Amino acid sequence: MQRDHVVLRARSAMAVLLATVLVGAGCADRDEPGPDRQTRVDQALQRYADGALGKDGVSTTPTRHLLAGTDELAGGTEVTLWVTDPVASSETTPRCYYLDLEEQSGWVSGFGGCGGTDDQVTLNRSNEIVFGTVGRWPAATVRISRGGPSTDITVTGGWFLVPSGLTGVSDSSYSIELVDADGRTICTVRNLTPPASVTPVT
Q1: End-to-end distance of the chain based on CA atoms, in angstroms?
Q2: Taking the model in full, what pTM does it have?
Q3: Which of 69, 90, 116 is the last residue of a domain?
Q4: Is pLDDT at 23 greater than 50 in this prediction?
Q5: What is the CATH classification number for the domain harbouring 164?
Q6: Which residues contact 74 (CB under 8 A, 6 or more apart)?
């Protein structure tokens, strides 16, 4: 899965955009305000999707995306996870994600990428942020724990964002139970330490 990173600080008088993207780096005009969150998300996901065209059978780009999770880190940073809407996609459309981070100081940053779908449950980590995907499994919820009480997290577009209170330290391992819309357990994976992927056995 390809991954990209964007950093932005918005000020009242100017905005500076630093981007390492598939097509190069860009800089916003100094007199223009920085883009709002929705614009950042739209631009990032479009860029990732355009970069995936022609790779691994990808021939179309996503037309819609969904908000898959929100959280606030200990320092006050707001985190939102955005993903491709699978209902508006096909087998030839890449499944993309973008994590947008907005600090109280005005700094914003984000990262994401695109990939295909498979039967693996994947858990990713970036510092305090843990997020994952259920692949093709028809899970409506994941029930996740680190050895203590479990927490139910809604799955949107195949993705989920783990609450910061449950992320633990960098070497924390997780048990993840996939639950369908009727509340039935589909499968369970254990001892998953991000970044990691596993194909569950039902």
Answers
A1: 26
A2: 0.77
A3: 116
A4: no
A5: 2.60.40.10
A6: 128, 164
